[in-house]
Every structure is written in structure tokens, then in C-alpha cells.
């Protein structure tokens, strides 16, 4: 690319950017970064034009290195202790339930990751509606976690609750189809462009079954994932890169085999590495989020998926788009928004407003290839199944959600809310000269402790700061705002309001002021 492009268009665009705002420059910098690097000897940085780093139109912000604020760790620890004491004092009933839970629940929680919430114990929920919930101590919270996308619809949308209650009275599970399944399959066709659909209870299962299908029809053993991906509890995906080689991911509990045997791992946005991995011709499928979301938001470079798609075809691997989180981008996820062309697609969590259910879809070609290999006599024992999969209750919830809640009109309302969240956070980052940035993908917003938006999982993980993250989460929680426990993600629902967002901005401003003053 660098030979074909002179610097003059870049400089011209920079001039245009001075008046047009930073968003144009983001595109320009992506397109011309190689040329810029050749001539100037280093990567393009938005901070090269200081006043642009202050543009309110910026997709993201890069503070000039000379003015970056560093966090005083001693102060952070003192503030954290103060917030921890406040948390315990404010939540006596949750504390008592947690103490009682020690004798019946392993580690005192229904699921091990619930221990990871900021604070000495998880708060126990009493009830929720829309974008708010109340805990057993009677405190009200604005919920930006929204069940880590499970409740991106807002909690218990009335129309879904009614459909679920109706269905619950008329039979929940049969091992037989209901008409809702057809309605949902037809809607998924319209949203994502793939013709055939199946249902599971979790996105993890949808991923696992898609991988099985890919292995079966390609007769290949390996899958390819991106460094620091997360696709649910899929054994093969707990693999990372360590000094350029595949290694089990830290914390991987009781792996059935070393993932080196099952998995190739490459960095996102690195087409050369992708091609080198696919060249072995042993990769059944690439399992990918179109934009990475589980290690902060990482957007694909311009043209990345077009070339990755071509590479997958060239080397005979299937491309599986896991849209479980990236459904935040549009009613048809990134697949519809960016006109991607996956062979298979996964969508779970919020598809039934949090009633367990997920789906995987496939192309005509995949459908033909797999149908030819599944024999009637064995179709209940082939490793793809689940007694409750495709049950009537899940399908009723999915239909009500897709028909009435996750509509195009809802996305039109939610996306500007995420933009408002971003603008608020960006303003404070800038005001305190913090070397952080904030990114948006549709209705999802996230800040990371990196000066520049990371381009891959390795860069993003390197910027993680567990104690800083916990402090900010606890600070927010103590003031009635819930963020996701595992990173700094905020999700908008159809019920989220501008006042909810402004409340977050206000406390983010207060927290960063306390940290940096
Ligand atoms: C991208 C992605 N895919 C799949 C899953 C698995 O979803 P579940 O835990 O509901 O099976 C997750 C969970 O966080 C996810 O982030």
C-alpha cells in the first residue's frame, strides 16, 4: 500500500479534518498509516494535531504523551479502601445473604464469576425493570451491565413477559416444534441473510455445535480464534498466544486436552498471521466476533473482513461470526451493518430478553454439506443436541423480543445514547489528561486504559488495570450505577434514558477528579 500512496492526500485530509472534525481523520489515519510511517518514521497519531485531540467529533481520543496524567497508586489504594468500607456499610442485607450462602453455594455464589464483582460480596437483586434494578437493601441502580447483554432489551420488557407468561401456562417444553420457531427462523433470515437456523439454550452451545459442523464437513481438526477472544465456555477457545506460540489461557480450569492440539491463535487485524495459520489447511473454521468485545472494543481495520473472508475461502476454512455481543451494532449485528458474508452465525443472550435461548444459522452450502452427513438413526446422539433446546418457552421469548423489542426503531434510539455516553466519558478523559480512550460500537460503549484504541487482543490486554477498574466500578456502584464486572463496558437498552447516561458521566467525572487531583 505504501508505494501507491503519497503523503499529500494525508496532509490534505488533515487540513480538511481541521474543519471537519476527527472522525474523518480516523478513516484517513487507518488508510494512510503505512505511508505516514514510511515517511515520518513512526505511526500516525491523532495527537500529531493537538487541537484535533480536543474535537468533540472524535471517535476516540488520543492524549498527547507530554501531558498524560499518571495514576498515583497510593491515592488509588486509599480511595479504594474508602469505597470498600462505604460499600459494606450500605449493603447489610446483601452481606447477610452472602454470609448465609457460604454454607450452601460453592464459594457463596450461584456461579463462580459472580465473585468478581467489585466490592466484598455481590449485591443481591430484588427486582428489575427496564434499565434499573433494586437490591435487597432497597437501593436503586442504573444498569449499564444489563446481564452482560442478556438484558440488552431492558429488564423484563412487558411484551416479552406477557408472551412468556402465556406460553408458560400452555406448555413449556415438548421435544416438538411450535409455530414460533418458524417465525423466528424467518426473522433471522431477514436480519442476517443466512437461510437455515437451529436453536440451543446458550450461545456457548451454539458455538460448540457450529464448530462440530465445521469439523464434520471440512474433515479438519483445528479451529482458529483470535488472541484474547471469548466465545463462552468452548474448550477450544481457551487458547492464547505466548511469545508467538499457542498456549492454554490463564485460569483455564481442567482443560480436556491442551488447546495447542485443537486451536490456532492469531492476533486480530493481522492478515499475514491469519494467512500463515490457514495455510496449514487444517483449520475447520475461524470462530470470530466481527469486532472483538470481550477485551474492550476492538474494531476491524478497513477491509479486514473482506480479505479475511477471501483467505478463509482460499484455504477451505469456514467463517463463523459470533454476533452474541456484536448484535449491539444493529438489528442484524455487524454482519448486516458491514455486509459481512459468514458461513455460519451465532446469536444468543439477548435474543429472548434473557430467557435462555440462542441460535446458529448457516449458508445454503453448509446446510447441504451437513445434511448429507447426518443420518436419521444417529441424529439424536451426534454430539449436537440438548433436551430443552428449541423449547416452546425460549421460542416464545425470542419471537416477542425480535418482533417487538430489538427493532430497527429501538436501535435508532439506543445508538445516540451510546454516543452521548462516549462523549461524556471522552470529555472527562480529556479534561484530566488521562491516557485512556473510549470506543463505541452501536449501543455499546467502553473505555480502556490505553492511550490509543487497541488494534488487537494483545494490545488491549496489555492496557488492562485490574485495581483501577475495580475502583471505578465500586465508585459507580456506591453511587447507583452498575457497569459490567469484567471490563469497562456500558450497554444501552431501549429503556435507558439520557438522564441515566448523564448520571454516569457525573460520577465518572467525580471519580477521575478525585483520582487525579
Ligand atoms: C462473544 C460471545 N459468544 C458467546 C458467549 C457465550 O454466551 P453464554 O455464556 O450465554 O453461553 C459469550 C459470553 O460472554 C460471548 O461473549
SS-derived structural category = alpha/beta
CATH architecture of the largest domain: 3-Layer(aba) Sandwich
Helix content percent band: 40-55%
- In what order do the strands lie side by side in the largest sheet? 4-12-11-10-9-5-8
The profile of the biggest β sheet is: 7 strands, mixed
Q: First CA to last CA: what distance?
A: 45 Å
Q: Class of the largest domain, according to the CATH hierarchy?
A: Alpha Beta
CATH topology name of the largest domain: Aspartate Aminotransferase, domain 2
Round the mean pLDDT to the nearest integer and report it: 90
* CATH evolutionary superfamily of the largest domain: Type I PLP-dependent aspartate aminotransferase-like (Major domain)
- Residue stretches low in confidence (pLDDT < 50, at least 5 long) are 1-32, 38-42, 46-66
Q: Rg, please? A: 23 Å
Keywords:
binds pyridoxal-5'-phosphate; 16 strands; disordered N terminus; Aspartate Aminotransferase, domain 2; globular; alpha/beta; seven-stranded mixed β-sheet; 41% helix; 16 helices; four-stranded mixed β-sheet; 517 residues
What does this protein structure show overall?
This protein is an alpha/beta fold and 517 residues long. It folds into 2 domains: 2-109 and 408-441 and 449-466 and 482-516, no CATH class; 161-404, Aspartate Aminotransferase, domain 2. 41% of the residues lie in helices and 14% in strands. It contains 16 helices and 16 strands. The protein has helices at residues 7-20, 22-40, 73-90, 92-101, 158-169, 179-192, 203-218, 271-278, 304-314, 333-337, 364-371, 392-405, 408-431, 457-462, 466-478, 498-516; strands at residues 125-129, 132-135, 140-143, 196-200, 222-226, 239-242, 245-248, 263-266, 283-288, 318-322, 344-347, 358-362, 437-441, 444-448, 481-482, 489-491. The strands form 4 sheets. It has a 7-stranded mixed beta sheet, sandwiched between helices. A hairpin with a 2-residue loop joins β13 (437-441) and β14. α6 packs across α12 (392-405) and α13 (408-431) packs parallel to α16 (498-516). It is globular and about 65 Å long. It starts with 6 loop residues before the first helix and ends with a helix. Mean pLDDT is 90; it is low at 1-32, 38-42 and 46-66. Bound molecules: pyridoxal-5'-phosphate. Pyridoxal-5'-phosphate (PLP) binds next to α7.
Amino acid at each position: 500500500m505504501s508505494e501507491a500512496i503519497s503523503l499529500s492526500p494525508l496532509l490534505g485530509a488533515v487540513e480538511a479534518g481541521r474543519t471537519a472534525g476527527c472522525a474523518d481523520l480516523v478513516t484517513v489515519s487507518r488508510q494512510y498509516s503505512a505511508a505516514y510511517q514510511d515517511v515520518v518514521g513512526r505511526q500516525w497519531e491523532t495527537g500529531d494535531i493537538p487541537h484535533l485531540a480536543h474535537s468533540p467529533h472524535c471517535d476516540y481520543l488520543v492524549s498527547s504523551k507530554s501531558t498524560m496524567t499518571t495514576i498515583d497508586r497510593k491515592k488509588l489504594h486509599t480511595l479504594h479502601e474508602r469505597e470498600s468500607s462505604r460499600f459494606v456499610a450500605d449493603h447489610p442485607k446483601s452481606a447477610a445473604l452472602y454470609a448465609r450462602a457460604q454454607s450452601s453455594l460453592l464459594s457463596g455464589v450461584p456461579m463462580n464469576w459472580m465473585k468478581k464483582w467489585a466490592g466484598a460480596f455481590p449485591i443481591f437483586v430484588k427486582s428489575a425493570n427496564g434499565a434499573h434494578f433494586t437490591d435487597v437493601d432497597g437501593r436503586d441502580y442504573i444498569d449499564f451491565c444489563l446481564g452482560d447483554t442478556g438484558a440488552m432489551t431492558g429488564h423484563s420488557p412487558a411484551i416479552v413477559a406477557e408472551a412468556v407468561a402465556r406460553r408458560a401456562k400452555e406448555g413449556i417444553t415438548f421435544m416438538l416444534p411450535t409455530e414460533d420457531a418458524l417465525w423466528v427462523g424467518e426473522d433471522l433470515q431477514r436480519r442476517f441473510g443466512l437461510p437455515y437456523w437451529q436453536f440451543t439454550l446458550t450461545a456457548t452451545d451454539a458455538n460448540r455445535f457450529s464448530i462440530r459442523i465445521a469439523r464434520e464437513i471440512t474433515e479438519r481438526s483445528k479451529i482458529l480464534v483470535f488472541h484474547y477472544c471469548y466465545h463462552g465456555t468452548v474448550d477450544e477457545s481457551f487458547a492464547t498466544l505466548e511469545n508467538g506460540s499457542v498456549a492454554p489461557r490463564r485460569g483455564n480450569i481442567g482443560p480436556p486436552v491442551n488447546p495447542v492440539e485443537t486451536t490456532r491463535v492469531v492476533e486480530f487485524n493481522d492478515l499475514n498471521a491469519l494467512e500463515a495459520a490457514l495455510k496449514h489447511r487444517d483449520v475447520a473454521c475461524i470462530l470470530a466476533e466481527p469486532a472483538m468485545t470481550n477485551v474492550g472494543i476492538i474494531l476491524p481495520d478497513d477491509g479486514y473482513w473482506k480479505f479475511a473472508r477471501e483467505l478463509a475461502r482460499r484455504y477451505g476454512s469456514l467463517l463463523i461470526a459470533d454476533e452474541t455481543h456484536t448484535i449491539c451494532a444493529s438489528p442484524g449485528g455487524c454482519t448486516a451493518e458491514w455486509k459481512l458474508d459468514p458461513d455460519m452465525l451465532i446469536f444468543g443472550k439477548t435474543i429472548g430478553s434473557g430467557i435462555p435461548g440462542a441460535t446458529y444459522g448457516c449458508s445454503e452450502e453448509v446446510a447441504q454439506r451437513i445434511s448429507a452427513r447426518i443420518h436419521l438413526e444417529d441424529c439424536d446422539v451426534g454430539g449436537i443436541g440438548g433436551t430443552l433446546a428449541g423449547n416452546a418457552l425460549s421460542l416464545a421469548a425470542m419471537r416477542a423480543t425480535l418482533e417487538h423489542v430489538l427493532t430497527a426503531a429501538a436501535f435508532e434510539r439506543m445508538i445516540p445514547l451510546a454516543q452521548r455516553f462516549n462523549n461524556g466519558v471522552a470529555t472527562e478523559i480529556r479534561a484530566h489528561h488521562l491516557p485512556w480512550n473510549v470506543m463505541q460500537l452501536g449501543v455499546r460503549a467502553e473505555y480502556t486504559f490505553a492511550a490509543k484504541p487497541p488494534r488487537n487482543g494483545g494490545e488491549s490486554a496489555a492496557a488492562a488495570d485490574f485495581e483501577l477498574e475495580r475502583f471505578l466500578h465500586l465508585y459507580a456502584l456506591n453511587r447507583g450505577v452498575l457497569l459490567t464486572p469484567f471490563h469497562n463496558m456500558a450497554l444501552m437498552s431501549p429503556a435507558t434514558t439520557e438522564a441515566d447516561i448523564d448520571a454516569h458521566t457525573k460520577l465518572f467525572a467525580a471519580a477521575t477528579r478525585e483520582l487525579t487531583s
